[in-house]
Design goal:
Rossmann fold; alpha/beta; globular; 11 strands; single chain
Length: about 220
């Protein structure tokens, strides 16, 4: 799958996939979007410590890197699991230039299918897997936050379905939080049918008007 590096409005990079006619991040600001949706509206709203985070779509590693940065600043211990079926090649990673820090590079060069402690507060596990097969993996459970950052529903409809959202609900801890950039009514209703309490939130500056945050409340 071909990927083209493009710069976005806030100066950070994203990838464009001609085959899908889709970007990995908002062209109005890749870093701004990720920080708002997943860190500010997701991670920072969880009181868990240590906190277990699952990312659906590791992609460029930007969400993981921003989470690592927040963990270093806050001192919160993070155990981060990223699912990705199509990892990036090293040349593409190098061109992204999200940070001069070697930690961003280590997110990509760390081994798959095992825990790697990148900093005293951040432990990474990368799994090369198809998200639709997640219900068959009994090892993934007990998450406090889920970043749902798959390609758009019209591009990957097999990923955005009620059965998989129900599975995510099951593997989350009580008061677990799921955030996603997609605020479409059909997605909101699927999350509600799965058991989540869902709220629309303001999107990132100069970006999408609304995003979704879903919470697994106490029974």
């Amino acid at each position: 799958m071909k990927r083209i590096v493009e710069h976005t409005a806030d100066g950070s990079s994203t990838l464009f996939v001609p085959e899908l006619n889709e970007h990995y991040h908002s062209v109005k600001g890749a870093r701004t979007e990720s920080q708002h949706i997943f860190i500010d509206m997701g991670m920072k709203h969880s009181s868990a410590n240590p906190i277990r985070i699952l990312e659906i779509g590791l992609g460029t590693g930007l969400n993981a890197f921003l989470t690592l940065t927040e963990a270093e600043q806050s001192g919160k211990e993070v155990h981060y699991t990223g699912l990705e079926l199509y990892p990036l090649d090293w040349e593409t990673v190098r061109c992204l230039e999200y940070s001069d820090s070697t930690l961003f590079q280590q997110i990509h060069v760390s081994p798959w299918e095992q825990e790697t402690k990148l900093t005293p507060t951040f432990t990474l596990t990368k799994k090369k897997t198809d998200f639709t097969l997640l219900p068959q993996d009994g090892t993934l459970k007990g998450f406090d936050v889920i970043y749902f950052d798959a390609f758009a529903p019209e591009k990957q409809p097999e990923i955005w379905n009620e059965e998989l959202f129900k599975h995510l609900y099951v593997i989350m801890n009580t008061e677990g939080i799921l955030t996603t950039y997609c605020a479409k009514g059909i997605v909101r209703r699927m999350l509600q049918q799965a058991g989540f309490t869902v709220e629309r939130l303001a999107g990132p500056p100069n970006g999408k008007r609304e995003i979704l945050r879903a919470v697994k409340n106490k029974s």
